[in-house]
């Protein structure tokens, strides 16, 4: 009994340290005029390397022994699942108020070129990179996984950037958000397919069909007046029920061989809009609070890479291709949608925001054995760099707009008609 209490106290202490580190990371990111999630991700991932730097492997073993890491992993996955329920809910019910043609062009521009650059990156990994970067995942699964990794846009981080900068109602902001919603929906599906290829495509297709059916049935059942009335009268109890169902679905689908992300999306996409938002928001907020624990577990994977084996070529290539696919593709989509150059380049910069969503995708691929430690590290750095570029590039665009020469008024000639 004493050992159990000591272990529980150890877990609580580490959890408190992680949450404090996340808070410090948010403050630092805010001071640097970066999205707060950047600070959370960096703080979470650096916890393990910081312990290693201070005390070496013995300190890491003492601070994070196996019987503490296992509960932390579960806590991080619980937070991730609850957070993604809200993400899926927002993906379903988000709107832009823009024309279908404009949204279609921007979506195609922000997704297809990025997917193509992802295929280029995957080809380099398969045919050129060292075996320790390549890993031993099946080629189709690896190629699809890398392509997805370079095509993701983080809807939650993008929403926060638009809110912080007052761009939510601007043409560029609305176009980027609409494109990100569609792009992320496609990326999650492709991620599930990639994981499924690694685990058995036939079984995975059956499970995907089961998930889609469950979502459709859930939508029908929850549309009734009875469930809506319960959500309105008892939002907290309804939120607890949603959280329980999401965790059950997530871990069951993971047990069957798919990622827990899929189970979270099955539940989140089934929830109607309107009054149900009051039940979903606390679930998402609680999950968001625990997500930094997920980053610590990811940091342990990054820290396990051999010293002196940083894949610099993979990092540089990933960043270059990621920026080319998203910024270039977003700009092209904006121009084809009839937007001016400044709006189009702003759209490209916005859809290049990856952040939390990208880290979740990469961790899912790493946990499924699709990414080697070094390739995972390279793509994590790419996600942080591309997301960190968003704020400075937007400021640069704003400064160029401010400095743009204003038209000189032409003086009226004497006797001219006003």
UniProtKB/TrEMBL annotation:
Q: Offer one example of a GO biological process linked to this entry.
A: proton transmembrane transport
Lipid bilayer topology: Multi-pass membrane protein
Q: Which Pfam families match?
A: Na_H_Exchanger (PF00999)
What InterPro entries does this protein map onto? Cation/H_exchanger_TM (IPR006153), CPA2_transporter (IPR050794), Na+/solute_symporter_sf (IPR038770)
Q: Which GO terms describe its molecular function?
A: antiporter activity
Q: What is its main location?
A: membrane
Q: Where are the transmembrane segments?
A: 6-25, 37-60, 72-91, 103-127, 139-162, 174-195, 201-222, 234-253, 259-278, 285-303, 309-333, 345-369, 375-397
Q: Which UniProt keywords apply?
A: Ion transport, Membrane, Transmembrane, Transmembrane helix, Transport
Protein's cellular compartments: Membrane
GO CC, one annotated term: membrane
- Residue intervals of the Cation/H+ exchanger transmembrane domain: 20-394
UniProt cross-references to PANTHER family, sorted A to Z: CATION/H + ANTIPORTER, K(+)_H(+) ANTIPORTER 1
User: This protein is called what?
Assistant: Transporter (CPA2 family)
Provide the species name: Saccharothrix saharensis
Q: What is the lineage of its organism?
A: Bacteria, Bacillati, Actinomycetota, Actinomycetes, Pseudonocardiales
